[in-house]
Please model this.
Amino acid sequence: SSGINAEYGGSKRTATGGADKNIVIFDKEGEKIVCTLKGHTKKVTSVVAHPNEGTLISASPDAQIRIWDVESESCRHVMRVHDGPVTGLSLHPTGDYVLSSSSDQHWGFSDLSTGKLLCKVADQSVSHGLTCCQFHPDGLIFGTGTSDSLVKIWDFKEQKSAANFPSHSGPISALAFSENGYYLATSADDEVVKLWDLRKLKNFKTISLEDKYNVRSLTFDNSGHYLAVAGPDVRVYQISKQCDLITTWKAHTQDATSVKFGPNVEYLASVSNDRTLKFYSSPTASA
Model:
């Protein structure tokens, strides 16, 4: 499994995308699979759930973005925005639009209700594909990562680059904004997580990880005080000057590919290449 969204529809449902090309929706309380959505022709690498509507958005190396109606278990729109694998998805804070990134060096912005592409922009300054994308909570800026180790912040209205963070090495594997809008966490194939203060555009902490620890996913809790990291294990750091590691789980037999906090940080969920979905009680309750 790869894509995951632990906060589906405001309920205790979790949507996961897998190497079997399917999206599986799991009910945490009933401990059962609710439905399986089929349509992608390659593995599903990103899944994003709309917070209010029964809508899911998924992406895949098959170059498709699909918008699903969960209740009817049907695909509402198939969007062919990109000419290569879709590497990232992020829902705009209004819930009306979705941002996508691709190895075709473009990011795209599409209307969820119509399934129409509104704009598609190439990063003229680099000749490398985009590896991930994420909207800032204010919806005015967003971040993209490249296969050439660059993190770029974009001004959404101007469709222009606003800042570059070039201090990683290797392809950018994940980026995450804190809900309060102050922090950005980034990772690449270089065994570190970098934390940036967006008010000063400065790297204020670099968390060094173990040898060969490849980060696959980053996510903040709602408060911005905790950062979850997925890779060879699942771990949580407390965001401070020290950025202490407060808990580590080694529940998967292969790399965890995605991690998310559940509603109100009641739990964490992770998925892995071992094809399992794991739930953990929130470490923030005791921290």
